[in-house]
Design brief:
heterodimer, A: alpha+beta, Rossmann fold, six-stranded mixed beta sheet, B: mainly alpha, MetI-like fold, two-stranded antiparallel ribbon, 14 helices, 2 strands
Chain lengths: 371, 291
């Protein structure tokens, strides 16, 4: 296990460029999550690392070894495939021992290693079972054991949990994390689930359109997303574009105005993102503090949905629809006052030329929310 | 009141009527089904029954509906170690096995290559194997025979095997392409990923996955070769005598007993292998044929 160094990597299929100038270093024993929506290039990055997608520019290094142009079999980077890709004509033990058999390791040694790995992934009794008889979670663990058997320099996991049902997924998530801590392998995990990334990874790289938008510890990514995309992807789904018109409307101090107050760090031609959990909702619309540390706005309830620990209330505020978490259910059309503390707001400048674009985003997110 | 009565017959009467019609209908459908099945059976099994009777008939002349003398005489004759039949049976099987081997050697690599969509002129190659089937058999084989005559392949086992292979390759290549196309490319990737080279991967991962399809194609080729007549006739006769050729000569000589017994012998591998194919041909694979 050594560090993995990706320098200015470019890759794609045919004429279609998918990865643009990706640079990333995975330290020895570190687990980095590649997080992004589908089509952002995260799986392509793994395939480029494993040698399944040709690299059109840049370098991949494992330790001091340049593996950019090596064939797949000489890279010593193993993958846990999304579909597991277990060989159905082999038993569990044959699957796990395959990599060692290829290396012509002595049979007793293979048996020993297979036994060791199967006990690590808690499948000790199943060595001679056909893989086709296993459950999803068990197959997942066989795939993991198989990938670890040859002691790879780097382990990459391609959406390893996406084929499991919710409950098994939580278990396997912790198992993989625990294994990673225990064995200390350098690894990259691809996921589109932000929670999965937050829980499992030491660092997260958020990918968008073949580029890394932000790289950082889970706390950093969650609490201070650097770009609107990261903020939105990490769950800050409420977005307000702070136009000069809104800025001027707030200065009138009208008691009927949509926006009651704004924090001082928000100025015109900026956009602001925040999470529904940070929104405080009060039904007494006449009582408010006009201070400069909160963004507060008026609206009325459109609908509410039960989320178990709370209700998620959709509030119509002029043309915006804001999601707010609240402890109890509210009937539709209840007038409410929403306030968000300044520290929970993620504020970004927008270029004036992008303004119409940003409005379009609002429109699409609005229509999504009403569904 | 009266009209009312007319429109509504007593329930019991109506029930009886209905019962009668139901019974009539079901009886009718039963008999019509019987007749249908009988006709169907006659069409299917009539010729076979005739053939079966011929195998145990020692003398059977025209006006008689059934043979005048029954017996197993011709069976002894056929299974006599010095008879033409056992000799040509061996030749047939020998040629069929060689044909299968030749077809395998071509269609396994060809099937693997053609199953990859990156292969240039893929459709062209696929159609190439169909071309011999596109022309009338007779003209193709006559021309092959003429060519073989020039190079001295006429009347040799090699010549017959080549002719059978041309015919068999159509089946084996198309089925092998389907068999390889239905394997999961991720399994191949997983093998490369764990350090296996392309050749090791092919023999340990890809081939076992495609094996059922390849076996099915072998069976098709074997059966086709066993039953092949036209090509063998033009290229092989009179030096090479396979079972179908023997059958032909026996029929031409009016020796229906020998012909029928030979036909029965030819039926055995067909039925056995058809059962096997039934096991090996997976619907997923059939769906990939020609893709």
């Amino acid at each position: 296990m050594t560090r993995l160094n990706i320098e200015n990597l470019n890759a794609g299929y045919g004429n279609k460029q998918i990865l643009n100038d990706i640079s990333l270093t995975v330290e020895q024993g570190e687990m980095i999550a590649l997080l992004g929506p589908s089509g952002c290039g995260k799986t392509t990055l793994l395939n480029a690392l494993c040698g399944f997608v040709p690299v059109s520019g840049g370098k991949i290094k494992v330790g001091n070894r340049d593996i950019t142009t090596l064939p797949a079999e000489n890279r010593n980077i193993t993958m846990v495939f999304q579909s597991y890709a277990l060989w159905p004509h082999m038993t569990v033990a044959q699957n796990v021992g395959y990599g060692l058999k290829v290396q012509k390791v002595a049979r007793e040694e293979i048996e020993e290693r297979v036994h060791e790995l199967l006990s690590i992934v808690r499948l000790a009794g199943l060595a001679n079972d056909k893989v086709t008889t296993l459950s999803g979670g068990q197959r997942q663990r066989v795939a993991l054991a198989r990938a670890l058997a040859i002691r790879p320099d780097v382990l990459v996991l391609d959406e390893p949990l996406s084929n499991l049902d919710a409950k098994v997924r939580l278990n396997v998530r912790h198992e993989i994390k625990a294994l990673q801590k225990q064995l200390g392998f350098t690894s990259l995990i691809v996921t589109h689930d932000q929670e999965e990334a937050l829980v499992m990874a030491d660092r997260i790289a958020v990918l968008n359109k073949g580029q890394i938008e932000q790289l950082g510890r889970p706390e950093e990514i969650y609490q201070s997303p650097k770009t609107p995309f990261v903020a939105n992807f990490m769950g800050a789904e409420n977005q307000i574009v702070w136009t000069p018109e809104l800025e001027s409307s707030i200065l009138t101090g009208n008691s009927e105005a949509l926006f009651v107050s704004r924090p001082t760090n928000l100025t015109a031609n900026q956009q602001v993102f925040f999470r529904s959990e940070n929104v405080t909702l009060i039904t007494n619309t006449s009582r408010f503090d006009n201070d400069n540390s909160v963004l507060s706005l008026r609206g009325h309830v459109m609908q509410s949905a039960f989320f178990g620990n709370n209700y998620r209330i959709s509030v119509q505020c002029g043309e915006h629809i804001i999601q707010a978490d609240h402890t109890c259910d509210l009937p539709a059309n209840t007038p409410v006052l929403l306030s968000v503390p300044a520290h929970a707001l993620h504020v970004y400048d927008i270029e004036t030329s992008f303004k119409s674009n940003a409005y379009a985003t609002i429109q699409t997110s609005t229509s999504f929310q009403t569904i | 009141m009266h009209s009312n009565h007319q429109h509504q017959p007593e329930p019991s009467v109506m029930k009886k009527c209905k019962c009668f019609f139901d019974a009539f209908n079901s009886r009718m459908s039963f008999w019509s089904q019987c007749v249908f099945i009988l006709i169907f059976a006659l069409i299917l099994f009539g010729p076979i029954t005739n053939l079966l009777i011929w195998t145990v008939a020692e003398t059977w002349y025209f006006p008689n509906a059934l043979p005048s003398q029954w017996g197993m005489k011709y069976w002894y004759q056929v299974f006599n170690p010095y008879s033409d039949v056992s000799g040509s049976l061996l030749t047939s099987i020998f040629i069929a096995v060689l044909t299968v081997i030749v077809c395998l050697l071509v269609s396994v690599p060809a099937g693997y290559a053609l199953s990859k969509h990156s292969m240039p002129f893929r459709v062209f190659w696929m159609l190439l194997f169909l071309i011999p089937q596109a022309f009338p058999n007779l003209t193709v084989y006559m021309n092959i025979a003429r060519l073989f005559y020039d190079v001295g392949l006429n009347g040799t086992i090699v010549g017959v095997v080549i002719v059978h292979s041309v015919h068999g390759l159509m089946f084996s290549v198309w089925i092998c392409v389907a068999a390889f196309a239905s394997t999961d490319p991720m399994l191949e990737r997983a093998s490369r990923n764990l350090g296996a080279g392309p050749i090791y991967t092919f023999f340990h991962i890809v081939l076992p996955q495609a094996a059922p399809g390849i076996i099915a194609s072998c069976i098709f080729v074997f059966l086709e070769s066993l039953d092949e007549f036209t090509g063998t006739f033009f290229v092989g006769a009179p030096d090479i005598t396979t079972l179908p050729l023997l059958l032909y000569t026996a029929s031409m000589e009016g020796n229906y007993q020998i012909a029928s017994i030979t036909a029965l012998i030819l039926l055995v591998p067909s039925i056995l292998f058809m059962l096997l194919i039934n096991r090996f041909m997976k619907p997923e694979m059939l769906a990939k044929i020609g893709k």
